[in-house]
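protein under study:
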Amino acid sequence: MATHRPGFASAITELASALLAYGEVSPRARLAADHVAQLLPGCGIVVYVIEDQNHPTWKSKAAAGDVATGLMEADFQAGTLAAVADIKETLLFSGNDLTREDYGHLDIRRTVASIAYIPLIVDGVLYGAIEVISYDQPLTKGSLAAAEDVAQVVSPAIASALAYEGERNSSLQSISRVTQMYDLEKVFNSSLELNDLLAAIASKFQEVMNVQAVNVWMVDADGIRLTNQAGYDPSVHLEDFQKVGEGIAGDISDNGEMVIIDDPEDQRLKKRNKDLQQGAIFSLLASPLMERENLVGVVEVINRIDGLPFDEDDHFLLTNVCETANNALHNASLLLTERKLEILETLVKVSTEITSTLDLDRVLQAIVNGPGAVIPYERAAIALEQRGRLQIRAITGKPRINPQDPDVARLGDLLVWASLSNDPIFIAQHGEEVKNDREETRAKFHKYFADTGMRAFYAIPLADEEGRVGILSFESGDPDFLGPAHLEMIKVLAGQATVALRNASLYREVPFISLLEPVLQKKRQFLALEKRRRATLISAIAAALIFLAVFPLPLRVAGNASVGSVHSAHVQPEFDGIVQRVAVREGDLVKAGTVLATLADWEYRSQLVAAQVKYQTALSEMNRSLATNDSTEAGIQRIQADYWAAEVGRAKERLDKTQLRSPIDGMVATPHIENLVGRTLKPGDTFAEIVDTSRATVDVAIDQSDVSLLRAGENASVKLEGFPTRTFRGQVVVVSPKGQVEGDDRVFYARVGVTNLDGAMRPGMQGRGKIFTGWSPAGKVIFRRPAMWVWTKLWSWVGW
């Protein structure tokens, strides 16, 4: 080992000069490591530094020679380094006296002869240590003398560098804090929208405070509600509500005092952390949000990221940040007040217009067009109840309504669906997500929004104590186009519109009372007849009434019929492939599992062979390793063998799927299927359609006025245009629960099951169907429809 040699003092002087050339810790530590490595050739050198005296850890800053640190930071009281922290003197450990765990912080693969530590101490304060690892021969106290001299020069250099970096970091932190405050001011004042501002407050507070989570509570009614949250805090959730005495935020909403909790055992934190498995709160800081002198909310700051409790500096920082947020909230509240005033003025204007006239069309146009001055919708519509049906009567920007327009029909179907609810409906799509609890509703609006380009739909029923008048809807391409003030305006508008529409409808129907005049005239003519003629006429009328009331006739309901297959299946490949062979033709009868075609499979056969070869190779390697008692390699090969065995199975499955099979018994319905040889198919492409023709279904369109007569199991007769002399008979299987628009009418489909053993009935055929619903008096059979029309009219007039 090298000891003091001539010129050593000169080398120390050069080292001191080199250290002065750098101000940071890392380059000075690197110089020290390189210098000691020159003094002790063949040894590994690591220089550790203690950056924080309050929370000390050994942090490796430089290494030289044959050594690498496995960890950039080591526990202060672990292994051989713990002895240096306790004794603070040069220590020398023999490799025979150490276990591998004693120097586990080192990433070395050689046998250690000895390890030495030279502390870096200034004025009794330990700032670090120089670690020397010898592999070939043990170190001695004498061999470390030169390194100790180096440590005396390096110690003050490291201490001064730490002080310099601390001061620099403090200055940078101050600059960063000023920059953050400027950024806060800029961000908060960039938006006057309250919702956007609250979201920015939560996210920016979390960024500036460097905490786990931030909760923003806003005053609501008799308590306070959590409206925005940034970060992770499982102890509360959005829309949680607190009153005084129910939580920290609730108490602050009453007394307006700032709260700082730095003790995890505080009862308020224990109550909040109850039943939490992870993410518990160990420190909390809360401050009120003030709009001028009025409390409008509370900000909660949860858990510092560094794991330390909140202190007075955090308290001061949160106070300053809240002052910035308070100014922004004041500006947002002024804008909100101005908007509410504008909404009120528009509401008064629309209300005056719809209540000053009994012209129904004028009222409808005012309702769908007037609110557009303050509500950013793209389309509003009103549908009114007429003769038991909901009919669109007004749409924004359309003076006339065309029921055949696809957009109008689509909107009409949606309004009929929305009218089933007695409460307002608000559906919005953010990105690709439609928020609703029911899967059917999400699917419905996914398609509707895709077809129309809209992203939000709001509908509110128009009803009073006499019943439903209709429904009012608003749509927009912005999913957040309605705020609380807009919703409040729409609610008031709906009430006023209901009254106006009811009055206008009654006024329009009053002139129909003139229809009674011809009846009174006929009565006078009848009384003017001679007595015998009146008796004969009365007898004839009585006989007709008896016939209509007693004589039974079959009651049938009829409608257009169309044939559909009971069961069909589309055969599709699961991956790309070229059709190599087709085994069937159009019209062939096939069984389930019959091979219809074969895709080119040379690639999958090659993959199967390759997987089998690799599987056999892995097995061979595993057996060889077991034979040589190499359990580690055998385990690795065993894993490889299991993997390739699974690949063999998947390759066989892919090879089997190159054969396209029929999933059901039936007939091949794809024309010219043999011409598909050589065509490339992709997943989702239909290769063939298999139709089960043994039994057919016929959908008979029944008007909604007749649907109440239909029951499953009733007999039906069908006559098709393709077989004008033949009657097909069957029974009603099911009646559709949902109506559909056919022309100007709404119909329900009765599905009739018909035996089709000879395959005569084919999908797509059309005709006429009749369903026998039982025997009824002749009067009911003949006059049922006119009576229903009269009853509907009377009900719409009188409303009982």
